[in-house]
Design a protein that fits this description.
- The strands form two sheets. Strands 3-2-1-4-5-6 form a six-stranded antiparallel sheet. Strands 7-12-13-15-17 form a five-stranded mixed barrel.
- About 45% of the residues are buried.
- With about 425 residues, it is an alpha+beta fold.
- Helix content is about 25%, strand content about 40%.
């Protein structure tokens, strides 16, 4: 959807508004996926979606509605429905009137024509390379290759207008033997950045190396965590940065803003213009976003302030993170492993759930590649284990950082591999 297309839709929709103000958003996307099982393509799917959403306000009474068509009759129906709801809604005590246009830095969109043009035949060629690598290693391969394009546009009755468009490709694969599995992931906005053969080769090597895994005792271990495993925990930290919850005493971050929170090696930030992890540069409230340093050299610099709480407590507006980046170093994975006398190498985590939200304590399990490290070398596969750990504790126990890598599905995260001490495993698992 071009800027001109969106403006025409907004002009028509906002002309129907009788409320004091309105903010409208258009979301448009198209995604296609090729799935693999037992080293064969099993499915090709494609879906597209377009949505118009409008939020209106009479004073501080707010109503919203959404539709999936852009013709005049449907747009008018959406506006009328939102206004009807606003008239009977309870007053929103945290309502802030929509803002005028706020400057947004210009930068090339994370757009790759090759992703848009990648049809089932194109994806089949990419997948074919991965299957060939798995066949060479005599393992079975499962996974998916997805390509996506998307556009998000926002306008309001104060004259604000923002647009963000991009592409994304994600390949995930699991290689399997009778007694083990290995996993790898590649994510980028450029098709050529995702090397399916190399990723399948990596997954296959893990599966082969992890055959006939043995038990180790639970307890506190030194761990080498690959970037996806780090990202699996960081997403919970990103979701927990809400200033309102902290101010009201419902958060692990209550009273900790401005204090030293984790190890000085930890730097966490969001930046919509990040070169390898670009994201939407505006909020649903109609404000543009800039880089925000959440944790700087271990210090909690700021929490996540929407416009209301920014005004309420006199703190700079941050908006919610649309990406989440952790700075790293230059060490390779082998460099990190060589630093560990005895520990565990973690490929990724799954089935993560809260144990104690007030401590940001999480539980979950390792998956698709857990290995014993002895004297700086990976020596054998280990049966999966359950952990109880907080990302804050993990970041407090950093001993070394590796190279950052983009990860994630619903939230874009770029995280480094790392070495951390005293990572707590509570038990083994039965698989």
């Amino acid at each position: 959807m071009t800027q001109e297309d969106a403006k025409r839709i907004f002009d028509r929709a906002l002309s129907f508004v009788t409320a004091d103000e309105a903010t409208a958003t258009i979301y448009e996307s198209a995604e296609a996926t090729t799935r693999i099982a037992n080293s064969e393509i099993t499915q090709n799917t494609a879906k597209s979606d377009e949505k118009f959403e409008i939020r209106v306000a009479f004073g501080n009474r707010v109503g919203s509605a959404s539709v999936n068509s852009f013709d005049d009759e449907t747009l008018q129906t959406a506006v009328q429905r939102a206004e009807a709801l606003a008239r009977v809604a309870a007053p929103d005590t945290e309502f802030v009137p929509c803002p005028p246009q706020h400057p947004m830095p210009e930068a090339p969109e994370p757009w790759d024509k090759a992703v848009v043009q990648c049809d089932p035949a194109c994806r089949a060629e990419q997948v074919k390379e991965a299957i060939a690598a798995a066949d060479a290693a005599k393992v079975s391969l499962a996974g998916s290759l997805s390509t996506r394009r998307f556009t998000s546009v926002l306008a309001n009755t104060k004259g604000a207008f923002y647009r963000h468009a991009g592409t994304k490709v994600r390949f995930v694969c699991t290689a399997m033997t009778e007694t083990s599995s290995g996993w790898a992931e590649g994510v980028s906005h450029r098709l050529n950045d995702v090397d399916t053969r190399a990723l399948a080769t990596r997954a296959a090597k893990k599966a082969v190396a992890g055959q006939n895994p043995t038990d180790v005792q639970p307890g506190d271990w030194t761990v080498v965590m690959e970037p996806p495993a780090v990202a699996d925990l960081l997403v919970f930290l990103a979701m927990g940065l809400d200033a309102k919850a902290a101010i009201e005493g419902r958060s692990v971050f209550s009273g900790k803003e401005g204090t030293n929170l984790v190890a000085p090696a930890a730097n966490l930030f969001s930046d919509p213009l990040h070169p390898t992890c670009r994201s939407t540069g505006f909020t649903s409230e109609g404000r543009s976003l800039r880089r925000v340093d959440w944790v700087k050299e271990g210090r909690l610099k700021t929490l996540c302030y929407n416009r209301y709480w920014s005004l309420e407590v006199g703190r700079p507006h941050t908006g919610s993170p649309t990406n989440f980046v952790m700075s790293g170093g230059d060490a390779t994975e082998d460099d990190l492993i060589r630093q560990v006398d005895r520990g565990l190498l973690i490929t990724r985590l799954w089935y993560i759930r809260y144990v104690d939200p007030m401590q940001l304590l999480l539980t979950g399990m390792t998956r698709d590649g857990l290995f014993l490290i002895e004297n700086g070398e990976v020596t054998r596969g280990v049966k999966n284990m359950r952990f109880n750990e907080s990302p804050i504790v993990m970041l407090s126990n950093i001993q070394a950082l590796g190279r950052p890598k983009r990860s994630g599905n619903w939230m874009d995260i770029e995280a480094p591999g790392l070495v951390a001490d005293n990572f707590t495993f509570t038990s083994g698992t039965s698989f």
